[in-house]
Amino acid sequence: MLVAFSRRVCHSRLLSLRSLVTETASSAPAEEPSTSTPNAAVQESAGQQEGRRPAWWSDPKVGAIYAYNIINKRFKDHGPQREENYRQLIRRVQNPREAALALKILVEGRKARAVLEQHDPFTFYTSQLLITTCLSTKSYDVALEALQRAHELGLQFDNNEAYYKLMKIAITNGRLDIATSVFEAMKDNGVRPRGKVVHILIMGSIVNGRRDLAEAYAEEFRCNNVKINQASQKWLDGTKQPDNVSKLKAETSEGFQDSTINEAPAEQQRAATAVASA
Known about the structure:
The structure is a single chain. The protein is built from 14 helices and no strands. The chain is mainly alpha-helical. Helix 11 packs antiparallel against helix 12. The longest helix has 26 residues. It is elongated, with a radius of gyration of 38 Å. The N and C termini lie far apart (135 Å).
């Protein structure tokens, strides 16, 4: 009897405890939901990213001068830059002043790489982009400097096209001294002249009243086993006259520095002598 009574008392107490726990849980205030859910965090992060400024090379409003300043500062902070950064600057060039900055940044880039003993040249694509941009913006002096300093700057001009285009612009404006300088740069860079270069030098010299210069070029070509095509030979033989010219049309001489525009005839004579004795 005593044992049965004790069991009933324990069971009654257990029921009382259960009811107490249930009442406490029901009367507790409901927990507020968290505001920092994963989706909210993602949205907040996305909002921060949207507020950031785009990279300068992806912003078409960034001009060449601003791009130059950015790259120049990064030289001081981080050393040599990716070659694509240089190309992004070149693509923004619109005038001779900006072309000069593009060449300058390549010079600085070359020096920065040399300090780290990184002597690989710039790619052919970068070199051609520079020359093409210089010609399209009438930055002829910058183009000439790039050709003359190709080895020093690690630029690659291994075909005739870049030299030919600048020679044609110079000759059509009577700038035989510039054409001679381009030809000398071509030889210094180890590039062998081909048909178009041979023809533009011979025909252009005769058209501008310098048959002696044309004959000097022809003699040098023969000595170095460079073929003179029939069209060029006709000019040398006198069977073609300057008034037959139709393809050579004057292009603006803007872009050549004033210091070299009014050269004396004696200077051109010395240029012809240099070509003949080269």
